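Form 7-S
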Amino acid sequence: MNPLKVTLISHSDTMGGASVVTFRLMQALRRAGVDARMIVFVKNSDDPNIDTASKRNCRTMNFLIERAHIFLHNGFSRENLFKVSEANTGVNLCCHPWIKDTDIIALNWVNQGMLSLKDIYSLSQLGKPIVWTMHDMWCLTGICHHAYECTNYRNNCGNCQYLHNGTSSNDLSRKTWAKKNWLYENSSIHFIAVSNWLAEKCRESSLLGDKNVSVIPNAFPITSFMTRPTATVRSFNLDYSKNIILMGAARLDDPIKGIGYAIDAFNYIFDNHPDVANNCTVVLFGDIRDSSLLKNIRLHYRHLGRINDPDMIRQLYASSKIVVSTSLYETLPGTLIEGQAAGCVPVSFGHGGQNDIIDHKVNGYIAEYKSAKSIAEGIIWALENAPDRQFLHRSVHDRFASDIIAQRYISLFNSLLQNR
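Output:
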C-alpha cells in the first residue's frame, strides 16, 4: 500500500513562528509514515523534502508588488504596512510535480507573495482535498492578521483601522473580503484553527461562520525539553540561585506582545514585595528595537538578545521557574507551551489560545486582561504554589506533542479522502 502523500505549502521553512511549526509538522508526519513535503517561498534549511516555489527574482517581484499596492491604498504611508496582506500576487503551483502527485494539499501561512487568492482557487480545481491551517486571523478578515478590538470581520470589513485611519467603507479590506468570500463559496477548503479561541473568531466571522473548521493545535517537540538543566549555560552569566522569571519573543517590543504590562508587573513586585524581588531575576530573550524600554524595569533583569541555538533555549527554560506572556492576542503562544514542557509555570493573559494551554491555578495562572497587577499576582502565586515540573511537562505532552498532533492530522486527511 502506497503511503499517504501530503504537500504542505508555507511562506518559509524556518523563518517565523508559523513556518517553524509547519516544518515540525512535516517532520512529524514523515515519522508517522506519511510522504510529506513542503513547498516554500523562502528556503533556509537544506532539507531535501523542501522545494522553493519559484526563482528568487520572481519571489522578490511578487512580494514588492503586493507591498506597493498596499502602500498605495494606505495613502503612501509605511505605517501598518506589514500588519495586512491582500494576496493579489503569488505563484501558480498547479504544475509543480509534488502538487500533481499529492493526495492532500495543506496550506499554511502563504502571504507576502507566496499564493494569491486566484492561485488558491486554481489549486482547489485540481480535485484534491485542501486543508488550510490558520496561524492568525487573516483567513477570516479582509486583510489584517490580527483584528485587535475591531469587529468589522463579523460583517464585510471596510473602514479598516490599518488604512487611512479607517475612513472608507469600500476600502481595500472590503474589496479583499469580497474576493475571499467568492473563493470560499466556490472552493472546497477545510479550515484548521490552531486554538479554540481562533475557532470562535471563525464562527463569529462573516467569511467562515458557516464553513468547516476543525481545531488542531500546533505541533511541538515536547520530548526534547528537559525539566532540569543538564548543563549550565555559562555564556548567559546568570545567578541560578535566584528564581528566574523568563519572557521571550521574536521581537519583545512588538505592540502585540504588551511588554509594558510585563514591566509594570515586575515593578509592582519590586515596590510591594521586596522579599520576593530580592530572590528573583527577570530574564528576557529576543530582539528589541527600543532597548531603552527595559531601563524602566526596577526588578533585577538581564536581556540576552536573540538566541538562535534551540538547545540553549531549552536549557534556559529548564533553569527558569516561571514563563510570562503579556501578549494582547495570541493564537497559540509557543513560549508558554515550551516553557511548560520544561517545567516552568506559565503566567499570562487569557485573551487567545492561552486558555488551551493553562488550567487556571492548576498548571499555570490566567491573569485579568490588561492588568499588570494581576500578572504580578500570578507570578507570586506561581512562586508559592509551583506544581511539580514533571506534572507540567506531562500536562502539555498529551495535547501538543508532535507525534500526537501528526496523528490528528492523518485522521483528518483520511476522512477527507474517504468523503471526496
